Amino acid sequence: MPINTAAVHTDIFKKFRTFRKSAVISVSALALALAGGAANSQEVAKPAKTTASPTKNKVRKASTTSADELPTITVTDKAGGGDVNAGQNDKGFVAEGTSSATFTNTPLSEIPKSVQIVTKDLIKSQQARSVVEAVRNVSGVFVDSNQSIQIRNFTASVLTNGDAPLSLTGTMAGTIRPMAGVARVEVLKGADALIGGPMAPSGIVNVILKRPQKEPLREFTIEGGSFGHLKSSIDMTGPVTDDKNLTYRMVLSGERDRENFGGYDGTAGGYIAPSLDWSNGGTDVLVGGELYKMRAPISPTAFLGPDGVVAPTGFVGNRQEGSDIQGGHVYADVEHHFDNGLIFSAKADYQQMNLDIATYRFVALPLYFPFRSQIESSQWSIDSKLTGELDTGPLGHTITMGGRYAKSNEDIRSARAAPLFYTDPQLPPVPSSLPIRTEQSTEKEATRFFIQDQIKWGKITLLASIAHNGVTINEDPSKAWTPNLGVSVQVTDDVAVYSSWQHSFRPQDLNPLYHFDGALPPETGETIEAGVKVNLLDDRLFLTGAVFRTESEGGWTTDSEGEDPTKVILTNKTVVSQGVELDVSGEFAAGWNVSANYSFSKINRGGEGDSSLKEYDVHLGSAWVSYDIQDGRWQGLGAALGVTARSEVPNHLKYVVPAQAGVDANIHWKSDKASLTLGVKNLLNSRLYSTDVASNFVNLEPARTILLTGTVQF
């Protein structure tokens, strides 16, 4: 039977609808009451502990200037790889902080929004093979049949080192790289065009690449498993010069599978990522690049109808169906700390990708048509920021201003044939030439100018910003102002509460087959959020709880029943997603580590006069628990167990994807220089499906998969 929890949560959402913008004011009032004593008495912050802490590792001290003293400027040196985004100081499953959400190194408790970070140790513990697998550790996140990451039921943008893509292939580039080159994966939730650029009001996934370190490391990893899987990688980093001012990193990875779980020809590919970092005094320069080439098979697909999911009983298709992907990425980051305390940073980024797709698409069993698509995409961007810290009386300001310019080109050439009935499930190879052809070229230019003030006053952190975003698509401009406001209050040393009000915008693409009088207005988004962040067990365990409401307004349709069926009509439909989330990660006892999350969301897709689904609920959750023996002859041995589950999900025609739960487990051994992990994904070999509400087809998730991973430092 369908899961129906609307009644349970009715009171929550009735109260939450009144929250809206007043939440920021309410928490601000609470902040004033809590911080008044500290601000008036000019308390000096306690010294930071030597252990990394999401709540106690302060970025800057509270102001101690008197009324007769000149304002002082203080700076935290980041040169030489000290940026917390590098993930080098992450301990176990707990991250130290991030600079992605505020442009400054900020503890998680002082960021007035929900931020979750998947650390390198959690990635390694789960034998995660992709960014898509890694983000399953975050509440409110799922992956649809197109392998697009959804946050709070809206499609997320996937950034690389904070660089925002302008196209779908740019987003794909952020998810396909092997995890050998990834330091951590950050999930920043909510509508925030300041960070994500043109985006849906979901949030962003920021993939942080490994960067050079001053401490030497040489690590070799080899992995084998089900379906003829074989992968190996080498990760080397360390100083080039005796003074350690010049450091390097080189990541090499190769992979080949005989087949995937559906019987299609398996994954194959290679990856190389060199980088150099030079730091001297107050200057840091980082340059790097990536080259990759890979073959990705398609996933088996099931049909979703009024009687539920109808999965194929055997292999259907051609074993060569899939995508050939190759591309590259080069980047350069420069940061300089001036003697007067100002920090200037700039980066340049270029990405290029070619994607060739050959597959069969079916309308209904057994009606298929062959399809090919070639996509050539490129993007380059430059951005710069200037940051300074200034104390004015009791207030400490960290002011950042900057701008960004990006340009992308995407050429899509597609071809297909008319649908045909196939009586033999073993389909012939997709023809190299198909009669029905379409071509589309899209050129985009994006600009962003912003100013942000991060204000410290006793136990209060206030984050206020405004950005002007502009995007031109094939000479059609869209622009919008996007203000953000958030406040975080350190109620105790271990508890912080926060609220925020954020905005996003995204230009609406127009299919070249249709026309509209003038430029389409952008789709706008808004997120209202409040929550609590708790540091437990002496900084070893971190918890975030949030309640949110996100909405998007925009959209268009065609005048299908009028005189001109190609004419575009604006719908201005409002889609609302609201819910509650809980995330916890860290060490809860000696040797015991956990990463767990739960979310409930209620979605209303709006619209009138059609029979499609308007409103539904979704429960998502996962937990991963790992234990390592701490001493004795068996020290280093351990085991881990995890479960990922969700409630049933209806698609747009009210057909239901059933509820499901998948179990993963492993046993492992590790020492200072080596590790060995034997893991099983989908231990119970359950029939699992992607979470998809936009199609009558749903992808099957992998069957039971065994992996043996060995790592040694040399």
Characterize the structure shown.
With 714 residues, the protein is mainly beta. The chain folds into two domains: 75-207, Ferric Hydroxamate Uptake Protein, Chain A, domain 1, CATH 2.170.130.10; 208-713, TonB-dependent receptor, beta-barrel domain (Maltoporin, Chain A, Beta Barrel). 7% of the residues lie in helices and 53% in strands. It contains six helices and 37 strands. The chain has a 22-stranded antiparallel beta barrel. A hairpin with a 2-residue loop joins strand 5 and strand 6 (154-155). It is globular, with a radius of gyration of 25 Å. It starts with 9 loop residues before the first helix and ends with a strand.
In short:
This protein has 714 residues and is mainly beta. It has two domains: 75-207, TonB-dependent receptor, plug domain (Ferric Hydroxamate Uptake Protein, Chain A, domain 1, Beta Complex), CATH 2.170.130; 208-713, Maltoporin, Chain A, CATH 2.40.170.20.
